[in-house]
Structures are given as C-alpha cells and as structure tokens.
Amino acid sequence: MKAVLRQSALLLALALLPAAVQALYLRERIPWQSRVAESDLVEVETARAWGANVIWVDARPVDEFERDHVPGAVSLNEDRWSEALPQFLANDWSPEKKIVVYCSAASCNLAEDVARRLRAEAKLPNDIRILKGGWEAWLGKK
Amino acid sequence: MKRIVAILIGGLFIYAGVIKVIDPVEFARDIDNYKMLPWPVGVWLALYLPWLEIFCGLALITRVLYRGSVFIVTGLISLFIIASIVAKARGLDVSCGCFGHASQHLNFSWHLVLDFLLLGGLLLLWKRPAAVA
C-alpha cells in the first residue's frame, strides 16, 4: 500500500506541472473569479437605458416565455436552436443593435449558453450581453 | 485480459484528458453545473484534472507507476459516480463533460453504466497485483 501511495503522490505532483504551465499561458483568457466575465454582463437599468437599440433574447423554455417576457423579446433557446436561429436572423437581427440575453435568474446558465452560441456559432458581430439576475431582476426593477 | 483492459481504460482516460485540456474553461463550466464547488476551485480543477487523467492513462498503458494510476483512476471514477448521483438527486440536469461535447449525447443512465463498467475493469486490475510492474 505504501508503494501505491508513493506512486499516486508522484502522479498527482507530475500533473501539477503542465497544469501550472497551462494556467500561466491562459491566465488572460480564463475567467478566474466568476463563470461569466463582468464585461459580458449588463444591469437591468443599463439595458433599459439602451432603449430601442437593443434586441432582447429570451433563452428560457418556450412555455415560460409565453407566460410572460420582456416587451419585444424574441424567444431563442437551445431546445429549438436549429429552427429558431434562422428565424431570429431573418426577422429580428440587426447588426447595429446590442443583444441582451436573459434566462430566469442569476443561477441559470441558459442565457450564457445562448450568448456563447450567438458569438461562436452564429458569429454575430453585435455587442452581446447577459442580463444580470435574469428575468427575476427584470421583474424586481419593473 | 488484464493488459487489454488496462490499455482500453488508459486510452479512454488519455482521450478524455486531451479533449478537456483543449478547452479548460468549457470543462470548468461542466464542473460548475454540479453546483458543488465555488467557481474559482472549479477552474483550478479544470486545469488540473485533465492532465492527471492523461498521466494516469499513460501510466496504465506503459505500466510505469501502474498501481498508483489504478488507485487514482478508481478514486476519480468513484467520486464522479457519487457527484453524478448527488446532482441527479438535486434535480440538476448536468452533462458530465467527461468526453467533451460527445458526452452530451449520453443520458444519465448510460453515464452510470459506463462508469460502473470502468469501475469493474479497474477492480479487475486492482485484484491482480502479481501481474503488475
């Protein structure tokens, strides 16, 4: 058992080296403190102040969107991504506008996933933000 | 038989490690989805665990530090099974991210089947110390 523990300790230590090198190499690109970089978030008040210069994207499931949503928001979620994205691009998207994506609350990840896909897959050039606190925050500031 | 199992598990761990090394932030998000650890801890784990998987996989295949790697890999799989069950019990719908986006197509039951198969294979390796280096 002693040999097993010694070997394990060696493996655990060996893995530290490349991990540390990678951490140094990627230090600028890793969001160390929070899952979403602060620069990708927007407060409700700020987004509201942008007025008509914003496209609101609701990343929640359709039934929640249908119950209530930010006025003028478009439903675009991962469940029906392949059908909803072309519709969004054809009917709602504009290159000059900012895009604010929201889901139900601060703890949900749907808005983050949709925002990431809009940047990475749809390759939209817009300023794409995630609403801080989500739908709950919007209701709170109503 | 034991040699084949060691190579299969080793290869699987190298594959799983390499996929996650390429995008550690994505893996950090997968860890964060379990809602068990603070984000900064998850980030450090996301940077560290893939390399540990690669080293353990190499050790299983080359038989250098073999028993240590069987020990660690068994621990990792056991921890992962517990974390998956706890997440499921808490109603979290998580993709483990074990094999990058490929694992998103596996549902919870298949993840568990795969994990228990791996655990069975590892116990087989663990039980026969006479054949190890």
Structure description:
The complex is a heterodimer of chains A (142) and B (133). Chain A has 142 residues and is of the alpha/beta class. Chain A is built from 6 helices and 5 strands. Chain A has 2 domains: 30 residues; 103 residues, Rhodanese-like domain (Oxidized Rhodanese, domain 1, 3-Layer(aba) Sandwich). A 5-stranded parallel sheet of chain A has the order 1-5-4-2-3. Chain A is elongated. The model of chain A has no long low-confidence stretch (mean pLDDT 91). Chain B has 133 residues and is mostly helical. Chain B contains 5 helices and 1 strand, in the order H-H-H-H-E-H. In chain B, helix 1 packs antiparallel against helix 3, helix 1 crosses helix 5 and helix 4 runs antiparallel to helix 5. Chain B starts with a helix and ends in a 7-residue tail after the last helix. At the A-B interface, helix 1 of A face helix 2, helix 3 and helix 4 of B.
Defining traits:
heterodimer; A: 142 residues; 2 domains; 5-stranded parallel β-sheet; 5 strands; B: 133 residues; mainly alpha
The residue ranges of chain B in which pLDDT falls below 50 over 5 or more consecutive positions are none
* Helix amount of chain A: 40-55%
CATH architecture of the largest domain in chain A: 3-Layer(aba) Sandwich
- Strand coverage percent of chain A: 5-15%
Assigned CATH class of the largest domain in chain A: Alpha Beta
Number of helices of chain B: 5
What oligomeric state best describes the polypeptide chains here?
Answer: heterodimer
Question: How confident overall, as mean pLDDT of chain A?
Answer: 91
Instruction: Count every beta strand of chain A, where a strand is a DSSP E run of 2 or more residues.
Output: 5
Number of helices, counting only DSSP H or I runs of 4 residues or more of chain A: 6
Tell me about the largest β-sheet of chain B.
none
Order of helices and strands of chain A: HEHEHEHEHEH
Distance between the first and last residues' Cα of chain B: 16 Å
From the alpha carbons, calculate the radius of gyration of chain B and give it in angstroms: 15 Å
